[in-house]
Specification:
With 291 residues, the chain is an alpha/beta fold. The protein has helices spanning 32-41, 48-53, 141-144, 171-185, 201-211, 229-234, 243-251, 261-266, 271-274, 279-288, and strands at residues 7-14, 17-25, 62-67, 70-79, 85-93, 100-105, 150-155, 190-199, 217-223, 235-236, 239-240, 257-259. Helices cover 28% and strands 27% of the residues. It is globular.
């Protein structure tokens, strides 16, 4: 099926070189009501990942008891260095007398995904094994808060209700992660020590953030990621393999635009429309580890 979504070209500079970067109009996240109506009609997306990642909870800042011994500050606004506001849910032990370390769950996959499903479960894990507070591929507040940790479930730039456009896998997203770690470490409830936690796509973002070396990032728990996007994702063994990235670009809940790495890699846009062939600079970015 031909993808006719709106695309824009943004000029960006990396390592002193200017590149044309393609962004595609995002898929506006579905509310709980829309997800319920879709299920009631029988028109449920056959892709369970899409149903999970496309959900967007309504912006609703509040503080409430999320579970026994766990308090949640929902939709906390955090400003990045360029003034863009992103949103996070902060889960903390409600009975802790002192300050606690913070596990940061950073990612494009959306916070509170359980609200958008009628049967919350994760792949390969028995139902009810993971609490409804957990993000996909991230730390479960229902477990870690009981061991004296805070867990920050973050919607990265452009995801859900967070402002800006989604920047995939690169240094721009990593700088935002740096800013969030330093913000969390400075909060009254935090002891100044933070970690990043997650696997697969979340792991890939964690590595990038850690490479920026936030001063208050004490350790890292990241596994099963890809370290070379060119060889391990876009062109496995030299063979075009865009399926994983296509899913991310298509399914992430975004009200603005998503960095369209797939279009750039495949050269779907004709050079006349962008001034020059868009895939060449992107391949350079991937090879050099910028994207």
């Amino acid at each position: 099926m031909e993808d006719n979504r709106e695309r824009i070209i943004v000029k960006k500079t990396f390592d002193g070189q200017e590149f044309d970067v393609v962004y595609v109009k995002g898929t506006t996240g579905k509310t709980k009501r829309q997800m319920d109506e879709m299920r009631a009609s029988g028109n449920v997306n056959v892709d369970p990942a899409a149903a999970m990642f496309s959900y967007c909870a309504e912006l609703n800042p509040r503080t409430y008891q999320a579970g026994p011994g766990i308090i949640c500050e929902q939709d906390v606004a955090v400003k990045m260095r360029d003034g863009v506001t992103i949103y996070a849910d902060i889960y903390r032990p409600s009975d802790s007398a002192g300050k606690v370390p913070c596990i940061v769950s950073w990612g494009y996959f959306g916070k509170r995904p359980a609200e958008g499903q009628d049967d919350w479960k994760l792949m390969g894990v028995p139902p009810q094994a993971v609490s409804k507070m957990a993000k996909f591929e991230s730390a479960d507040p229902g477990y870690w808060c009981r061991y004296g940790y805070a867990v920050a479930n973050v919607d990265a730039r452009g995801v859900g209700n967070s402002e800006g456009c989604v920047n995939l896998w690169g240094t721009e997203d990593a700088r935002d992660g740096y800013d969030f770690v330093e913000w969390a470490a400075a909060q009254a409830w935090c002891n100044g020590r933070c970690t990043l936690f997650g696997n697969s796509g979340v792991c890939m973002e964690n590595w990038k953030i850690a490479a920026e070396q936030p001063p208050h990032l004490a350790c890292l728990a990241a596994w099963e990621g890809q370290s070379d996007l060119y060889r391990e994702s876009y062109f496995c063994g030299g063979i075009p393999n865009p399926a994983y990235e296509e899913n991310i670009v298509k399914e992430v809940a975004c009200k603005t635009f998503v960095e369209d790495t797939v279009t750039m890699v495949q050269g779907r846009l004709c050079p006349e429309r962008v001034g020059r062939c868009p895939w060449k600079p992107v391949l350079c970015h991937i090879k050099s580890g910028v994207v």
